[in-house]
Amino acid sequence: MVDTIKALREGDHKAYEQLFDTCYDALCRYAYSILRDMDEAEDIVQKSFCKLWDQREALDIQSSIKSYMYRMVHNESLNKVHQQKNRQEHNLNYISAMNQTPDTVSEHMAASELQLAIDKALDGLPTQCRKVFEMSRVQQLSYAEIAKELGISTNTVENHVSKALKLLRVDLKEFLTLCFLLQLLK
Mind listing the domains of the chain with CATH numbers? Predict the structure, then answer.
């Protein structure tokens, strides 16, 4: 395994491919055991391998490379669960703020439809744009903190958030109109 780590640091594509082929399926099953969604599990594993490749020159692995990958997938999976939980809490807080406590079956259905529409709209955002938007709105990080964490400029962060808001307004316009009308009726 020390040879694999050394080969990765040197940019050996074959060592990387061999590691990917050896670990991918098992890592997907592991991520699935946490996320209960195979598409999300595969995304997490692919992102973890990309991150490994991007950081290959600075690798300082004291354990085995497989243990390192399992830990990376574990952490990314838990972050995803945390993001989903935060997103749901944020959406529920929004509904509460609108004084729309879902008491009837139709209101439950409307709230559920809104949640699905929000999730679908967020999933439709470009990956980097979505990540920046969630860091800003869900994790409530400042633009400077996001820029530092992602290694991009604050202007780029601002552009991503602005783009996300524009796209979300378009995707959620029917719900925004409904919310506006409900507020007028109160």
Answer: 1-80 (1.10.1740.10), 98-186 (1.10.10.10)
